[in-house]
């Protein structure tokens, strides 16, 4: 546990000192400013436009954080030959968990900054506090820590950074498309092949299902989140992430470096 905490702190400090961190913060501010600008062009509810576009910007920023701080930092440390020195003193699974914990803290920071800025923008333009954005921050953290776990598994499997990043974006897109794909096949009825439908369902079970964390409509319309869906999403996140990290740790322990 001591090794995990130490590596997590080191990862966090290195990330905060990185110029990319500052660049992403400015990019986040730009996206939030653009959301406010879009709201002035809308004929509908300004607060809803700000929240909808702002949550999309939050997701985009955290996707970049997952790739640059979660994935790229691992490969950069390996290229600098710093990894071999660390692994002589720290067990490989502990190193991986420490790196993941540090990445998760960066994701939490960006999610909190995004959520706080959206809350202030909504309060400024609408005049009413949108406390539902707290849920948006939580689900954003769950989604991208889970995606980060996928990135660590790809790294442990020995996949190159470029391919890792491409596959990660693919997993993100697929994870948000499974529900639509299944519904489309069901809508085809007798014109759809049962084999194709079963294949899509199997893929949806194996791939992370990010649709479970999509409560955007409920948050924007100030509706109460269904307790069963919330509980199912949290349990899914915990067990799926635990399985990813366990698989990554086991593979990385036996991997030739």
Verbal overview:
This protein has one domain. It is built from eleven helices and no strands. The two termini are about 25 Å apart. It has helices at about 1-15, 20-40, 45-80, 80-85, 90-125, 135-155, 160-175, 180-190, 195-205, 215-220, 225-255. About 80% of the residues lie in helices and about 0% in strands. With about 260 residues, the protein is mostly helical. Helix 2 (about 20-40) runs parallel beside helix 5, helix 6 (about 135-155) packs across helix 7 (about 160-175) and helix 8 packs antiparallel against helix 9 (about 195-205).
Compute the gyration radius: what is it? 20 Å
* Average of pLDDT: 80
Segments where pLDDT lies below 50 for 5+ residues?
Answer: none
Instruction: Please tell me what the overall shape is.
Output: globular
- What is the total domain count? 1
Helical content (DSSP H or I, runs of 4+): over 70%
Given helix and strand content, the structural type is mainly alpha
| First-residue to last-residue Cα separation | 24 Å
Instruction: Please tally the β strands and state the result.
Output: 0
Q: Summarize the helix and strand pattern as letters.
A: HHHHHHHHHHH
Largest sheet: none
Strand % is: under 5%
Structure annotation, total helices:
11
């Amino acid at each position: 546990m001591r090794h995990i905490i130490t590596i997590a702190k080191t990862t966090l400090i290195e990330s905060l000192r990185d110029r990319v961190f500052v660049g992403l913060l400015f990019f986040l501010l730009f996206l939030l400013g653009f959301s406010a600008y879009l709201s002035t062009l809308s004929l509908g509810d300004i607060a809803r436009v700000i929240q909808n576009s702002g949550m999309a910007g939050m997701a985009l920023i955290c996707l970049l954080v997952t790739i640059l701080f979660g994935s790229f930092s691992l490969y950069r440390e390996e290229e600098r030959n710093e990894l071999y020195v660390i692994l002589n003193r720290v067990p490989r699974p502990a190193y991986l968990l420490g790196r993941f914990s540090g990445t998760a803290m960066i994701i939490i920071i960006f999610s909190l900054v995004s959520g706080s800025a959206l809350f202030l923008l909504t309060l400024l333009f609408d005049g009413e506090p949108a406390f539902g954005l707290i849920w948006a921050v939580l689900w954003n953290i769950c989604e991208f820590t889970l995606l980060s776990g996928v990135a660590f598994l790809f790294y442990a499997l020995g996949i190159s950074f470029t391919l890792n990043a491409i596959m990660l974006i693919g997993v993100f897109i697929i994870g948000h498309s499974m529900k639509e794909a299944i519904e489309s096949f069901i809508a085809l009825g007798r014109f759809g092949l049962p084999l194709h439908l079963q294949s899509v369902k199997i893929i949806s079970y194996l791939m992370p299902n990010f649709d479970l964390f999509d409560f955007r409509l409920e948050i924007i319309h100030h509706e109460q989140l269904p307790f069963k869906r919330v509980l199912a999403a949290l349990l899914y996140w915990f067990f799926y992430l635990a399985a990813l990290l366990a698989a990554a740790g086991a593979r990385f322990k036996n991997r030739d470096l």
